[in-house]
Design brief:
This protein has 300 residues and is mainly beta. Helices cover 2% and strands 43% of the residues. The chain contains one helix and 24 strands. The longest helix has 6 residues. The protein starts with 8 loop residues before the first strand and ends with a strand. 36% of the residues are buried.
């Protein structure tokens, strides 16, 4: 889905059908996307500091305590209908320290703790955050992997070396050049560079290394700056590719990359993802009653 240039008519792109649908969502006016999981958006209104969950299909809204965000990403562990849902933000405060803010459903304020980092954790406002098996994982500018346990409230930095692709990324663009996703206990990272094809990695927990993938083994990665996702139940041409958050040819085609074959599609260009407006679009799960949703949505 993506924000309109003006007005409240939001665009929803279905890569399976290569069709666009439109919903009038005045509830999202003046917001930006912080994170997405399943069919839920976490939205932020900078003017009021208001943070809230919103489902664009049911129009259900769940308010959270106010938080000064600037341009940070706030991940959440589960849909807000789950009482164990926890929100987490990792913020750089100095060269060798990070501040981690958390809030659980039902709490009326945020808890912020500061942790020293050794080695230094070069954080940014666009930290890549995923929740996996009870832990929030955060990737730094230079590719280090930090992990936060929201129950024990402990922060550590993994000894896993950064993906080798981070060596070729310009420091000022590293925060926009990586996409991280979790799927069934595995963590995937897609690194992009304006002068080369992307690299796709999966974390090998046993060996403690990032394995570069030459095939996605039937999975599909939907890459986005605020949050990415992986799916395995898709069929046809959707399988085995990375789908990026840009639609071409008047809504008829997404830009994709297939590790098996090492090529973009359309294949005539090398794309620079550092220029995208990251908070203006996101991949979101389609509703279970998709037919009912499509009845009320404009189609193109």
């Amino acid at each position: 889905m993506s924000y309109p240039k003006s007005g409240d008519l939001f665009e929803f792109y279905n890569p399976t059908e290569r069709k666009n649908y439109y919903l009038d969502l005045p509830e999202m006016r003046g917001t930006r996307i912080c994170y997405v999981k399943d069919s839920w958006l976490l939205l932020y209104k900078p003017r009021t500091l208001r943070l809230f969950f919103f489902c664009p299909y049911t129009l259900e809204k769940i308010k959270m305590p106010k938080l000064q965000l600037s341009d940070h990403i706030v991940a959440f562990s589960a849909p807000p209908t789950n009482p164990d849902c926890t929100l987490c933000m990792v913020r750089h405060v100095e060269r060798e320290a990070v501040a981690i803010s958390t809030c659980r459903m039902g709490e009326n304020q945020w808890t912020t703790l500061t942790y020293e980092c050794d080695p230094p954790f070069h954080s940014s406002m666009w930290n890549k955050l995923v929740f996996c098996d009870g832990i929030f994982y955060c990737m730094s500018l230079t590719g280090l992997l930090g992990f936060y346990d929201p129950i024990e409230r402990t922060w550590n930095i993994s000894t896993v070396p950064p993906p080798h692709c981070t060596d070729c990324l310009h420091l000022e663009n590293r925060w926009r050049s990586k996409f991280m996703a979790e799927y069934e206990g595995d963590i995937y990272v897609t690194c992009t560079c304006a002068l080369a094809e992307p690299f796709v990695y999966k974390l090998d927990w046993v060996k403690g290394v990032w394995d570069e993938l030459v095939s996605l083994d039937g999975r599909t990665i939907f890459a986005n700056y605020v949050s990415s996702c992986v799916r395995s139940e898709l069929v046809g041409k959707l399988v085995g590719s990375v789908y990026f958050p840009k639609v071409l040819f008047y809504g008829k085609r997404c830009i994709t990359y297939r590790p098996e074959g090492d090529r973009y599609s359309p294949k005539d260009d090398v794309y620079d993802w550092t220029e995208m407006e990251g908070f203006r679009s996101a991949w979101i799960e389609a509703p279970k009653n998709v037919d009912k949703f499509l009845e009320g949505a404009g189609c193109k």
